[in-house]
Amino acid sequence: MCLSTLLNPASVAIFGASRNPEKIGGRPIRFMKEMGFAGAIYPINPQHEEVQGLTCYLNLDAVPEVPDAAIIAVPKDRVLEAIEACATRGVKVCVVMASGFSEAGAEGKAAEQKMLAIAARTGMRIVGPNSQGLANFHNGAILNFSTMFIEEPPKVGPVACISQSGAMSVVPYGMLRQRGIGVGHCHATGNDADVTVSELAAEVVLDPKVKLCILYMESLRDPKNLAIAAERARERGVPIIALKSGRSAHGKRAAASHTGAIATEDRVIDAFLERHGIWRAEGTEALVQAAEIYLQGWRPTGKRIAVVSNSGATCVLSADAIERYGMELAQFSPETEESIRQVLPDFAASKNPIDITAALLTDSGLFGKVLPRTGEDAEVDILMIGIPVSGKAYDFDRFAQDTADFIRTYGKPVVLAAPQRDVRAAFARHGIPTFETEDSAIRALAQFTDHLAMMQQAPGGAVTPAQTSVAGATLDEYASLDLIAAKGVAVPLRQICGTAQDAQAFLATCPNGIVLKASSAEVPHKSEHGLVRIGLKTPEDVARNFAEIEAKMGEMGVAFEGVLAAEMLASGRELVVGGYIDPVFGPVVIVGEGGVAVEAMPDNQLLLTPFSLSDIEAALTKLRIGPLFKGVRGARPLNAQAVFQAARSVAELLGEGAVLSVDINPLITTPDGATAADALVEIRQG
Amino acid sequence: MCLSTLLNPASVAIFGASRNPEKIGGRPIRFMKEMGFAGAIYPINPQHEEVQGLTCYLNLDAVPEVPDAAIIAVPKDRVLEAIEACATRGVKVCVVMASGFSEAGAEGKAAEQKMLAIAARTGMRIVGPNSQGLANFHNGAILNFSTMFIEEPPKVGPVACISQSGAMSVVPYGMLRQRGIGVGHCHATGNDADVTVSELAAEVVLDPKVKLCILYMESLRDPKNLAIAAERARERGVPIIALKSGRSAHGKRAAASHTGAIATEDRVIDAFLERHGIWRAEGTEALVQAAEIYLQGWRPTGKRIAVVSNSGATCVLSADAIERYGMELAQFSPETEESIRQVLPDFAASKNPIDITAALLTDSGLFGKVLPRTGEDAEVDILMIGIPVSGKAYDFDRFAQDTADFIRTYGKPVVLAAPQRDVRAAFARHGIPTFETEDSAIRALAQFTDHLAMMQQAPGGAVTPAQTSVAGATLDEYASLDLIAAKGVAVPLRQICGTAQDAQAFLATCPNGIVLKASSAEVPHKSEHGLVRIGLKTPEDVARNFAEIEAKMGEMGVAFEGVLAAEMLASGRELVVGGYIDPVFGPVVIVGEGGVAVEAMPDNQLLLTPFSLSDIEAALTKLRIGPLFKGVRGARPLNAQAVFQAARSVAELLGEGAVLSVDINPLITTPDGATAADALVEIRQG
Question: Is B589 helix (H, G, I), strand (E, B) or coil?
Answer without folding.
Answer: strand
